[in-house]
Write a structure and sequence with these properties.
Length: about 260
């Protein structure tokens, strides 16, 4: 009796189905059927065929001598068994994979380029801003208490030190006195000195003297009264109105800030 017929008859005598043999040996059905048909080319190698045959015969309760006898009948030549077939990837799948890979590489290159560009231009801009830093700081110091002409008349973000009630500078022929009745800010130029800025509260009074004259900017025209060389100036404008005055009118300041 040939080996394949022996295996099949013994399995049927024991009442085992191929599924039952699989549960006992973990040998897949196609290999069980291949052994019963003696289709040794279905195995990857003679060693695999011998190992499966030995396990199958043990599950059927066949003797060791019988196993050794029939094991010798399995071809051992290297050309008997078919090599495991390689899985061929369709060309369209290869094209898709190449496109996806190329797209990922392009995205990575663009990302690295953008990152390097941001670092480079960030350093360049940082150097430019660093070069301008002293001027910016000076401007901030000058304007820390005075808003621009578009800001409301009662700023609440900063509270500088209040101006003293009365303060005199070098005595000269030009004298300007400010009396405050509403909260307001003031920016004033006198002679060729740098700009001075103040924040006045109701009841404050301040006096300046100069050799050439004054240019004064008031953030709340209704909040102050002025006296220039003994002449009073009242009702300068409505509340919150920003005005610019010169004393005398011919005065021209020689500093920008």
């Amino acid at each position: 009796m040939v080996l394949g017929e022996l295996l099949r008859k013994k399995r049927e005598e024991l009442g085992f189905s191929p599924e039952a043999i699989y549960q006992r040996t973990k040998i897949r059905r196609k290999f069980i059927e291949a052994m019963e048909k003696e289709d040794w080319e279905s195995f990857a190698s003679p060693a695999q065929a011998r190992a499966f045959l030995r396990k199958y015969m043990q599950a059927l309760g066949l003797s060791q001598e019988l196993m050794e006898e029939y094991e010798d009948s399995i071809p051992t030549g290297p050309t008997v068994f078919k090599p495991v077939k390689e899985r061929n990837i369709p060309k369209d799948h290869l094209g898709l994979i190449l496109k996806i890979t190329l797209g990922i590489l392009i995205i990575l290159i663009l990302g690295v380029g953008i990152w390097l560009g941001e670092r480079y231009y960030g350093k360049v801009l940082g150097k430019k801003e660093t070069g301008k830093e002293p001027a910016i700081k000076e401007k901030v110091v000058q304007n820390k208490t005075v808003p621009s002409s578009t800001l409301p008349s009662e700023p609440t973000t900063t509270t500088p030190t209040q101006a003293p009630k009365v303060q005199k500078e070098n005595i000269s022929e030009h004298r300007l006195v400010l009396s405050c009745n509403e909260r307001t800010w003031v920016r004033i130029y006198l002679d060729s000195e740098p700009v001075k800025e103040y924040l006045f509260n109701p009841g404050d009074r301040y006096e300046w003297v100069a050799k050439e004259g004054f240019e004064i900017k008031i953030g709340n025209a209704a909040g102050v009264e002025l006296e220039y060389n003994g002449k009073k100036y009242q009702n300068l404008g409505r509340k919150g109105h920003v005005i610019l005055l010169k004393f005398p009118e011919s005065y021209q300041r020689r500093v920008l800030y």
